[in-house]
Amino acid sequence: MEKNKLYVGNLSWETTENSLQDAFAECGEVVSAKIITDRNTNRSKGFGFVEMASDEAAEKAIAQFDGKDLDGRQIKVNLAKPKE
């Protein structure tokens, strides 16, 4: 299981991949930030994934952002579970 890939839930519709990446960059190098969108409407589904460069940065991001406010929403941040 990857320890540096994070699930980020309860995102605001206003949150963009760039703003997500910028926020998480406070905790270390961000490899990628992806917001999952609806295939038909191209609208955010309200969650995404952030991959950090190191396990330490990922742990710091969980500690710093889980339950915190981002763009007016209290976000959930935890380790991403592998696809079944």
Account of the 3D structure:
The protein has 84 residues and is of the alpha+beta class. The chain has a single domain (5-79), classed as RRM (RNA recognition motif) domain (Alpha-Beta Plaits), CATH 3.30.70. Helix content is 23%, strand content 36%. It is built from 2 helices and 6 strands, in the order βαββαβββ. The chain has helices at 17-24, 55-65; strands at residues 5-9, 30-37, 44-52, 69-70, 73-74, 76-79. It has a 4-stranded antiparallel sheet with strand order 2-3-1-6. Strands 4-5 form a two-stranded antiparallel sheet. It is globular. 25% of the residues are buried. The mean pLDDT is 95.
Outline of the structure:
With 84 residues, the protein is α+β, with helices and mostly antiparallel strands. Helix content is 23%, strand content 36%.
The strand order across the widest sheet is 2-3-1-6
Please bin the fraction of helical residues. 10-25%
Please provide the ordered H/E string of secondary-structure elements.
EHEEHEEE
Counted up, domains total 1
* Quaternary structure: single chain
Tally the beta strands.
6
- Overall mean confidence score, pLDDT: 95
* CATH homology-level superfamily: RRM (RNA recognition motif) domain
Strand fraction band? 35-45%
Helical segment count: 2
Find the structural class using helix and strand composition. Answer: alpha+beta
Q: Could you say what the CATH architecture is? A: 2-Layer Sandwich
First and last CA, distance = 12 Å
> Taking Cα atoms only, what radius of gyration do you get, to the nearest Å?
12 Å
- What sort of overall outline do the alpha carbons produce when their principal axes are compared? globular
